[in-house]
Amino acid sequence: MALVNKPDESIFASSAKQGEVDNFPDLLRGWGVTFDQTQGIPPMEWFNFLFKRLDEKHTYLMQRGLPEWSATQDYTKGSCVQFDGVSYRALKDSKNNRPNESESQYWVRWGFTLSEIAQATLTQYGITKLYTGYDSQSEDLASTPKTAYQLKQLIDSNTRALGNVIPNSKKSSAVNSNSADTVATSAAVKTAYDKGVEAKTAADNAQRTANDGVSKANAAQTSANHAKSAADTAQSTANDGVSKANAANNNANGRVSKAGDSLTGILHTVGIASTHFGHGDYSSQYTSGAPFMVEATGSKDRDTYHPFVKGLVRSKGRYGAGFSLGYTTKQGNGDGFGRGIINLIEDNGTSKNWGFEHNGDFYSAGDVRTSSGKSLNTATQFSDFIYQKIGNFEVRKYPDGTMIQTNTVNFRGGYSHGTVYSFNWAVSFVSAPMVFGSSKAIQDFSFVDRSQMDIKTKSNGSTYYYYLYDPGAEQGDWDMQFLAIGRWKR
């Protein structure tokens, strides 16, 4: 949408001469008042007043930005106003509730200056002051990333220095410790050396005795080797049997039983064919199955759409769309039934819903059209034909804008020949209608020849003017009947 140019500040008719601006007599009725006061033609002074009124409203908004609160204005949730120089936003619909009332449930402050926002503390929200450094004990300052960087450098430096020092707690003089995080002292090394010398002397003596035993052990080892080879062959055969049994068991666990089973993941397939299942009476459909069925387990009680069947076409960003059939549980207050839903959604989040109510009503997201393009929204309904009985008038309005009115005027004791008569239609036409008139005798006259004539220069859509002409001399009680055909809308 193109940017609209800034309007000027001129106010229409603000420099009008005296008498060129006159207050509109009835703002709530509107132009209809002209038929009562100016024969349907509004004067210049009224136009000047209305256009000046509109410009003054625009100037009021341009000067203030936000309108001032009014006790007589109806406000809806989200409306913004100013009151005593402070802006407010409506929390709910209201009228005549002052915005600055203490703990108001209708209004809340909206928009604050920096001077109104307090400094943040440990117990109060507000503006926080930044500080770089780690030598302050203040509790109303916030550290910057540079402070964290300086602390990290200090910690890294201390860590490297501590890594080059062996604490006393990590030094040990023991020679029989299994610890992997202590360091041996010189005393521990001396003790270990002495023990090593003693061990070498004892080992030399034992070696001489062992050499004789080795010869005997070698002979026994040869015999044992033959036995071990046979045992290894048997173990290998047994292990192979266990592996095959485990593989067969795993294969069986991963299969779906033909007798019925449950899946723990999503089943992807190129097609599913089924025989009929769950068919029968409509009344039994909640307790019977179906070829494809979504169970009630896991469904939500309220405000949730549950798709039963869904299909997607094309990819996101390339006119992707989804179409699903499902059910939406109870929405709004209380508990109860929801509605069946057909959902059509685009990849941009735009969606339309077609709803099926439990009382049988169907709600369409848009118009309903026939194969020939006929629209349900523009189809004529019986309620579009309006009939009214107003006094002696009968009014009939038709959807295409045509209006027919009839009226009966009673003349009792004669009439004045040549006198102009008039009456106002019960409902005004948009312009002067076509009028037909006929007379009906009340007394027993041999003939009735009175004639009604329209005065076109005065008749309009609201008032009909006429006079009567009678070439005879009969006078008495009689009725004049009128039928008008015109339009109630253009």
Automatic annotation (TrEMBL):
Swiss-Prot/TrEMBL keywords: Hydrolase
InterPro entries tied to this protein: CBM5/12 (IPR003610), CBM_sf_5/12 (IPR036573), Phage_lambda_Stf-r2 (IPR005068)
Alphabetical list of Gene3D superfamilies matching this protein: Carbohydrate-binding module superfamily 5/12
Ranges of compositional bias, category Polar residues: 204-240
Gene Ontology biological process terms in this record: carbohydrate metabolic process; symbiont entry into host cell; virion attachment to host cell
Domain named Chitin-binding type-3: residues: 66-110
Superkingdom classification of source: Bacteria
Region annotated Disordered, chain positions: 202-256
GO cellular component: extracellular region
GO molecular function, one term: hydrolase activity, hydrolyzing O-glycosyl compounds
Signal peptide: none
SMART domains, sorted: ChtBD3
Keyword Hydrolase annotated: yes
Keyword Transcription regulation in record: no
Name this protein carries in UniProt: Phage tail protein
Species whose genome carries this gene: Haemophilus haemolyticus
Source organism phylogeny: Bacteria, Pseudomonadati, Pseudomonadota, Gammaproteobacteria, Pasteurellales
